[in-house]
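2024-03-11 09:14:02 INFO queue: dequeued item 7-cyano-7-deazaguanine synthase, len=234
2024-03-11 09:14:02 INFO validating residues
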Amino acid sequence: MFVYMGLEMTSKKKAVVLVSGGLDSTTVLAIAHSLGYDCYSISFDYGQRHRAELQAATDIAKRQGVVAHKVVTLDLSTIGGSALTDPNIPVPEQETSGIPITYVPARNTVFLSIALGWAEVLEAQDIFIGVNAVDYSGYPDCRPAFISAFETMANLATKLGTEGRQLTIHAPLIDLTKGEIINKGMALGVDYAETVSCYQADGAGRACGKCDSCRLRKEGFAQAGVDDPTPYQS
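2024-03-11 09:14:37 INFO prediction written
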C-alpha cells in the first residue's frame, strides 16, 4: 500500500477520468496514471466553439496510454446560455466580476453524470475530474461543496453505491494554484504544449491569448517559473 495526495492504493483499479484536452484535465490524467489506475478517459463534444480541444484530448489520451477513450456527443448549444455554446454571444476578452458568460449551465453536473454511468458499466469506483477552486473563473460547479454533493448523490443513485461499493469523485487539483498544477504535471512528464485551453482556439488549436482561460494559463506558467509553450495566434 502507498499513499499519494491522501489516496490509498492497494492494487490496480479502474478509474474514469474526464479529459477535455486542457491543462488541468491532462494533469489529472497523469496523476491517475501515477497512482496505478487503469484509466478510461472520457471527453464531450457538447457544441463548444473551441472544438480543437477534442482532438487534443484524443491525442493526449492515446499518448498517456489509457485503456479506452470515449467521446460522448451531447449538444448543449440547444439550451444555449453560454459564450462557449452560443456563437451569438462573444467570448469576453477582459476580466469580469461574478459568474462569467463562459459558464456553461450545469456542464460539470451533466459530464459527471455520464462519467458516472460509464463507471457503473466498468464497475469502476473512482472518477477523476480537474476542477479547481483557486485559480478558476468563478464557476459554481468547480467548488468543493459541489464535488462533495455529487459524490453523495452518486452513492445514493447507483447500483454500485447501494451494494456498498463506495464511489469516489477525486478532484486532486481543487486546492492548488495554476502554477502548482503546472509544476505537478511537469514532474509527471506532462507536455503542456499538447494541451488546448483557449475558449476560442482556432482549428489548429492556437490560442487567442486574450480570453479568461488564456489569462489564467499565462499567469500559471509565470507562477510556475517556466516558459509558456502555448502556440498563439498571430
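2024-03-11 09:14:37 INFO annotate: The radius of gyration is 17 Å.
2024-03-11 09:14:38 INFO item closed
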